[in-house]
Amino acid sequence: MATSLQLFQCKLARPFRPFPLRSSTPPLSLRCCASPPSSYSITLIPGDGIGPEIISVAKDVLVLVGSLEGIKFEFQEVLMGGAALDATGVPLPDDTLSAAKHSHAVLLGAVGGYKWDKNEKHLKPETGLLQIRKELGVFANLRPATVYSPLVDASTLKREVAEGVDIMLIRELTGGIYFGEPRGFGTNENGEEIGFNTEIYATHEIDRIAHFAFKVAQKRCGKLCSVDKANVLEASMLWRKRFLAIAQEYPDVELSHMYVDNASMQLIRDPKQFDTMVTNNIFGDILSDEASMVTGSIGMLPSASLGASGPGLFEPIHGSAPDIAGQDKANPFATVLSAAMLLRYGLGEEKAAKRIENAVVDTLNRGFRTGDIYSAGTKLVGCKQLGEEILKSVESNVHAGAATV
Ligand SMILES: NC(=O)C1=CN([C@@H]2O[C@H](COP(=O)(O)OP(=O)(O)OC[C@H]3O[C@@H](n4cnc5c(N)ncnc54)[C@H](O)[C@@H]3O)[C@@H](O)[C@H]2O)C=CC1
Ligand SMILES: CC(C)CC(=O)C(=O)O
Ligand SMILES: [Mg+2]
Q1: H or E stretch including 162?
Q2: Domain assignment of residue 29, yes or no
Q3: Torsion angle, CA of 351/353/359/365, rounded to 10 degrees?
Q4: Domain assignment of residue 106, yes or no
Q5: Most buried of the four, 15, 17, 102, 143, by CB within 10 Å?
Q6: What Gene Ontology molecular-function terms does this entry list (predicted)?
């Protein structure tokens, strides 16, 4: 196996190089075995809604790429979210967590759905998702927003604005308001019902995501934009203070700061001004959905969640899309690209990752589209058939010059 150190490529033709590790900071990826195991154990979590449809496609792609590249996988499929609630009464069963922790990497579809929307917080599918992220310690979530040339016209932005966009959005994933205490319901002094959450970041949480982001920016174009709300929120004030301090260790990276309201506007006005962006949990959640539409669809954005050690978690950025579940309409590209990220960042299998990315571009070049990215003159297919076309492209191995995600 090569190594699972991060590989990032500058869109301005900086050479492709392995990520340098600094001894003072935690490794950015999880598996850095001296020699590869004879077989990788992969935990598959289809989840709910469109989850099973898209995971089925991604699994087939992994199996084929594995057989062509001489990589063996052992898959274990487990329950999480609504499916787990129905079967076991909890959204993250112990068996699921244990399987995930003991595997080389985890590939997840999505969780959630109308059926469980009114459940109490601890019995919501989404609570299982937050728990597994926390338990795996995957604090750094890479969400690449890449506009693929054949999809420029699927973007909701004008061609000249969307063409060439290549942003790496880094979202802090295990802190902030989704986890902060205190939270809950209560009554105020007027006897009125209230709901409350806490946006909270400790220095060590900011420092580790900052080091991670600076290293990613170093390997790309050396430009890092930190997005916060430091004009109002104390947690953001500390965030900005720590980023400014840590920037001293990365003189080759140009650090800028932007308030999140402006950033959300700038992403639509001129997305090409951004290269690497880093932000907290909730802002990253929202900005990545926004960035996805620049690329044509939320069905195009994959993600990799990495920690200091242990398996990484790989999942599309979208949810379980209950409105189209079971109708063979889901776009599987985001999950297939998440499988490519699993190979690159989780296992260090760069060649196999690139093979998948090339297959995605080749499938797009051959004109195949699900409804969310369809435009006149292209071929509208379902999730299943798109999966079959991706397999053909994997097999033919055309070097499509795909971006690295
Ligand atoms: N990582 C996860 O498991 C996530 C789970 N959720 C959960 O998913 C459920 C639905 O949430 P929504 O807010 O509707 O967000 P969503 O991302 O599931 O769907 C938003 C819209 O995008 C479309 N869409 C999403 N993925 C698509 C794909 N691959 N191909 C084609 N169209 C796609 C949907 O059909 C829908 O119209 C909720 O229960 C929510 O909590 C939401 C976001 C992330
Ligand atoms: C449960 C949510 C935080 C999931 C989500 O929207 C996401 O991770 O993008
Ligand atoms: Mg989200």
Answers
A1: helix 159-162
A2: yes
A3: -100
A4: yes
A5: 143
A6: 3-isopropylmalate dehydrogenase activity; magnesium ion binding; NAD binding
**Does residue 278 lie in a domain region?**
yes
Strand partners, 236: none
d(CA 395, CA 374): 24
Choosing from 45, 92, 111, 126 the residue with most ligand 2 atoms within 8 A of its CB, the one to mutate for a pocket test is 126
Token pair of 123, please? 């019995």
pLDDT in tens, 20-29: 322 333 334 4
Task: Work out which ligand 2 atom sits closest to the CA atom of 173.
Answer: 8
Closest Cα to atom 7 of ligand 2: 285
Q: Does residue 223 lie in a domain region?
A: yes
Q: How confident is the model at residue 394 (pLDDT cuts 50, 70, 90)?
A: very high
Phi, psi (deg, nearest 5) at residue 318: -80, 175
Per-residue pLDDT, 34: 57
Residues lining ligand 2, judged by CB closer than 6 Å? 126, 129, 178, 285, 317
pLDDT, tens digit, 9 for 90 and up, residues 133-150: 999 999 999 999 999 999
For residue 263, the enclosing domain spans: 7-184+196-396
pLDDT in tens, 270-324: 999 999 999 999 999 999 999 999 999 999 999 999 999 999 999 999 999 999 9
Question: How many residues are there in the chain?
Answer: 405
Sign of the Cα pseudo-torsion (26, 198, 225, 317, in order): positive
Residues 6+ positions from 83 with CB-CB distance below 8 Å: 46, 47, 48, 111
Helices marked H in 226-347 = 234-247, 260-269, 281-294, 333-341
* End-to-end Cα separation, the chain, in angstroms: 19
Q: Which residues line ligand 1 (CB under 6 A)?
A: 50, 110-113, 126, 129, 298-299, 315, 318-324, 330-331, 334, 372
Which residue numbers are catalytic? 178, 229, 261, 285, 289
Number of domains making up the chain: 1
Q: Which of these, 292, 302, 298, lies nearest to 268 by C-alpha position? A: 292
Question: What is the domain-level CATH number for residue 127?
Answer: 3.40.718.10
Q: Tokens representing 268?
A: 């639509």
CB 111 within 8 A of CB 84: no
